[in-house]
Each structure stands twice: as C-alpha cells, then as structure tokens.
Write a structure and sequence with these properties.
Oligomer: homodimer
Order of helices and strands of chain A: EEEHEEEEHEHEHEHEHEHHEHEHE
CATH superfamily of the largest domain in chain A: Medium-chain alcohol dehydrogenases, catalytic domain
CATH class of the largest domain in chain A: Alpha Beta
CATH architecture of the largest domain in chain A: Alpha-Beta Complex
Structural class of chain A: alpha/beta
Keywords (chains A, B): Oxidoreductase
Helix content of chain A: 10-25%
Strand content of chain A: 25-35%
Protein name (chains A, B): Enoyl reductase (ER) domain-containing protein
InterPro entries (chains A, B): ADH-like_C (IPR013149), ADH_N_2 (IPR041694), ER (IPR020843), GroES-like_sf (IPR011032), MDR_fam (IPR045010), NAD(P)-bd_dom_sf (IPR036291)
Chain lengths: 352, 352
C-alpha cells in the first residue's frame, strides 16, 4: 500500500523586480506518494525548518547579473517550487547513505516535503546538543548562510584587531547580530544600528553591543556616526549599502575596511544608491570588499567549533525569529526587507 | 659681496574649492640673497624641474577631510609659496651633506629657487643616465608620484596575473600610461580610455595598448566597456571615479579588483559622483581599494630597478608633457583637470 500525502509548497506567480508583496506568491498543493520506485536513489525528506534569506528575492528578479555569478543566486522560475536551506527528517530513502528517521540538512524546498534527487545537497546532521533550528541559521553549512557569512566576513575580510572600532548595520539581522557578538568577544568597540527602539535595547542589553541607534530617528547619518564614533570607524560591516555606506566612509579611519555583505537598500529599490567619496577612499586607503560565504567553506570547521564553544559558554547569544507553517513564508520574506525580523528568520514547517 | 636674485614663485590668492582658474593664482617676486648666515644649515636650490599633480588642487581647498589623512595632502595657505616635488641644483649649502653644484631631488617650491630648511626632504640624485625630468615624474621617489603609484597600485593592490583583462582610465595620465605599460609587459590584455582621437592613437600606436577609446564619444559607458571587454574586466585601474567606475563594476568579472588611484571627477565637482551596484560588488566579490604610494616606499628599490630596465630595453616608453617657466604653472594645473596633458606634467623652470 502506498501512503500519499498532500504536499503544500510556496511558489511565485511572476518574477519580482522590486519589493515583493503577498500577491506575488501562491501556496500550492500536490499529492506526493511517500514511497519510491524500485531502483530509485531519491530521498524524500519531511521538512522541519527552512531558511528565509534576502538572496532569495534577488533570485526572483526577471534578470540580475548576480544570477550569473553564483549558483546560490540562480534565477527562480514562476510556478516551480523554490529551494531553500533547511533541516528535515528522512521519510523514505533510496540512497544507502540515508535511512528512515535520519535528521538531515541541505538544500530543501519552501514546502512540507522535499524530494531530493541524486546529487542534491544533503547531509546527515549531528545537532551537537543544539536545537535543530540553529543548524538552519547560525550554524548552517552552506553558502549564503548567516553564521559562516558573519565569521568569514568579519575575520577574513575585515581582519579585525582587538580594540578596533566596529560599526554594524542591520545589526539585528541574521548576520549582523553575530558579527557584533564576534567583535565583542574579540575585544572591539561595537556600535550597531537597527530600525526600532526595541531593537536598540536588545542590541545593548541582550547582545552586549557598546552602543546602538535607531537609524529611522537619524536624519543626518554622517553626524550620527560622528557622534557614536568620535575616534572614527575602523571596520564597517555593511548589510545595507546606500546612504549608510556613504556616511560610514566619511567617518572611517585610515586603513578602514568595509565588508559588503548585503544591500537591503538595493534589493528592492535601485534609486536608493548613494556614492561614497572616492577621495576619502583614496586618502584613507579604504578597502571596500564584496564577499560570499561560499568562498570560505574551508573555514567551516574553525567557524563551527568556535561558535559552538561561544554558544555553550554564553559569550554568544542565539538570536532567532521563527514563524510557523509554510503559509507564513511569503510574509516572512516580505518582512525581511522591512527589517521586521530580529535575528535569523526561520520557518518551522513541522514538529519533529 | 652678497649676490641677490629675484625669485619668482607661484602662490594662490584664495582657497580653491571647485575647478581652479587663472585668477586664483598669482606670480610673485621677492629678492633672495644667495648666501647663508654663518652657522645656517639651510640649502639654497635652483629649481630645474618641478612636478604638477592633481593632489595639489585638493590641498588648495578651504577644507578637505583628506587633508587630515596624509602629510602630502596638507592644506596650502593663500599667499604662501607652494611646495612640489622637483629636481634642482645646489647653489649654496650650509649642510655638509650637500655641496655647490650637486643635483638634488626633493620637496622644492613652485618657484625659481627653494630655501630648504633643516629636516626638509632633499636627497642627492643619481640620474643613472636618464634625463633629470624622469626623476620628477616616473622615477621620482616620494609619495604621490606617478611611477611608484603605478607600480604599487598595479602590482600590489591589483595582484595581476598574466592574461588578465585590464582597463585603465585617464590612460595617458602620468600614472595611467605606466600602469598600461606595466600590464602589457606582464602579458595582460589592456584597454585604456582618454579624451581625444589623438590620445587614443597614441595609446595604441606608441604605448602598445591592445585597444583604446575616446570616452567623450561614448554616451553609454556600460555598453562601451562591454564592447571592449566581451569577456569582462578583471582589473580596473581607476583614475577618474564617477560614472566610469560605475560602468566598470557592471562589467567586472568575479574576483575583480579596482585600485582607486584618482578621482578627477570628484576633485572639481562633487556632483559627478555615481554609485556602483553593491549587489555586483557582493556577487562578484569585487574589491575596491584606495591607496597612496607613500605606503609602499619599501617597494621603491624594486620599482626603480624594474622600471629602469624596461626604459633601457624600450619595453616602456617615457611619456612626459613639459612646459617652460614658472609662469606656466597655473595653466598646467588647470589643464590637468581638463585632461589636456599627455603623460606626466612637468615644468622646466630653468636650464641646467
């Protein structure tokens, strides 16, 4: 007897070239037989947690040159299911590497089940005593994910030294909160910005940032940064681009470094660009460096052991923002660009 | 008997905050006694060649944050004489290191004579068989000078590999022409841009660039660069900033590098800024790096022997643009920003 379920999943109705809205998405259902043809080496996974990240919106555009530069940025086709990093449990396996009940992590779908084809990215997961959701966010092991992005971007791209002054934008985002916490552990002076009073309090009280401000209340970002960094900025971890980047360049010290990690301002509205002073860039010998975590997979072991240690000692606080059910996926992505998440945005698709 | 001469020198009447014009400058004269008080350790130098470089205009602004970042960018005060790198001949010396008739190089003045105080930057010069003017421009040994800027910026900041595709803006400028020639010697594909048909011909015919274009005839720089670099740009040596930088970012390859050397567009008009796509910067892992040659003085020995060899074998062509007399200094500086020089701009103040 073949067991059949209804698999609910999210798709887009059309390419999304600006900000996304509810009407761009569709929740579809299709029957799925929970067994495999003889000889099949597919794996059917029941999805438990899936990730929401800004890069997915870029993949929904009708065209972006970035789609050619990185496999993780390949275009998403309307009507098709959408892949996303996640953690799940094997329901049935034609692949001898996996058995029923195994907890796995890899490239799953924005849906309730994933049929992983041979060659698909899937690995058994050792939770190491941490909640499964941590492995979707801060401890996740593939490109585009927050933990390695924060670690590689901060330590490798910025090459920080103890005592340096670090500014983090979108500091409660999935990457920013970890960058700020890594910087504090190293002994840097860290200021973050976020979009509400509550978030500012969280940065200072829960995450131990030296200071924080609400950028929505600051009409003149250059003088704001001057106030928070009277001795200048050595490192700017840039998650937003635009006017904040420009203001940071004005306030940077000699040999300042900017790791460009995200451009929330550019994803949804190309008009919000702002050009930093290249004269400052020259005279202050500033480095502006784009990067992708996928180029630093060789550091994954270091990153994982370091971060797990800090989580166990409490030097780093996990920061997750979890919604329930596949139907919450569209609003979770939309709200990401409104800065409505606090920490890594994750969808809990099902109970273990 | 004390010999007295009339020393003619250039000064500014006022700070210059935009483009400079003739009326900003003044040719002054004052008597100078060509002998020293007993016990004085000054050196009086008859200036032979002095340098004209864009950084001098920045120093004339009433304020620029760059003036705080680099000694070579310190503000110039109206009415005072203006220092500039140059080569001269010692007339009288109170310093045992120098004797009458010595050829010296160092920080002189935009004038006919320089009284070098103790501690002033002055060294005996071995011309090594080259014309003295070469030692003001491409072979000069202090910060802000073209040869070391080209060498350090290209080899150290861009880390080029044979076969890479290199784009140079202001390619007939003092730095750009050398960068292009270094890149050709290394075996790169090199395209330059300049501001006239004659300059384009010079780049291709005299300097051996693979191709070149006149940016004034190109209304859409993004598609221009796409045409000249169908396989993308690996290295952009940026002497101008603004829209050209933006177009270069759009056409860069993965792991592309931009050495930001000059911002002609920004020196005289802050409105010409243009913001490159930070999404491209991220997905293509582009590095945008400002630099000053003064940080690479440790490379001066390498640079000098390499460049002298190439000059002797003819693999590198010298490119100088020499005007005569201190009275030609103001127009030389003004025209630098109109792109009217071909190669290093030098003033021949006097015959040897």
């Amino acid at each position: 007897m073949k067991m059949e379920v209804i698999n609910r999943y999210i798709t887009i109705k059309n390419h999304v070239d600006g900000a996304s809205q509810d009407s761009d998405f569709e929740l579809r259902s299709s029957p799925l037989v929970l067994s495999l043809e003889p000889g099949s080496d597919e794996v059917i996974v029941k999805n438990l947690y899936v990730s929401i990240y800004p890069g997915q919106l870029i993949r929904m555009k009708s065209y972006s040159s970035s789609q050619e530069c990185s496999k993780s940025a390949a275009a998403i086709t309307p009507g098709e299911d959408i892949d996303a990093y996640g953690v799940g449990k094997v329901v049935v396996s034609g692949n001898p590497k996996f058995g029923k009940g195994d907890i796995v992590a890899g490239l799953l779908k924005w849906g309730e089940f994933t049929v992983v084809k041979p060659g698909g990215m899937l690995n058994k997961l050792d939770p190491m005593g941490f909640p499964l959701s941590y492995h979707v966010g801060m401890l996740g092991s593939v490109s585009g994910l927050s933990g390695l992005t924060a670690y590689a971007g901060f330590f490798e791209v910025c090459k920080p030294k103890k005592g340096e002054k670090v500014f983090v934008s979108a500091a409660l985002g999935s990457v920013g909160n970890l960058v700020g916490q890594f910087a504090k552990v190293l002994g840097c002076y860290v200021v973050g910005c976020a979009g509400s009073k509550e978030k500012v309090a969280l940065l200072k009280e829960k995450l131990g940032f030296d200071d924080a401000f609400n950028y929505r209340e600051e009409p003149d970002l250059e003088s704001t940064l001057q106030r928070y960094f009277p001795d200048g900025i050595d490192i700017y971890f840039d998650n937003v681009g635009g006017h904040m980047q420009k203001a940071a360049v004005s306030n940077m010290n000699i040999n300042g470094r900017i790791a460009v990690c995200g451009v929330i301002s550019e994803y949804t509205d190309r008009q919000k660009r702002a050009a930093p002073s290249m004269m400052d860039v020259i005279y202050k010998r500033i480095k502006i460096q784009g990067f992708l975590a996928g180029d630093y997979l060789n550091l994954f072991g270091d990153f994982l052991s370091t971060t797990c240690d800090y989580l166990r000692t409490g030097e780093i606080q996990p920061l997750e923002d979890i919604s329930d059910g596949v139907e919450s996926i569209p609003s979770a992505l939309i709200n990401l660009f409104g800065g409505q998440n606090t920490g890594k945005k994750i969808i809990k698709v099902a109970e273990e």
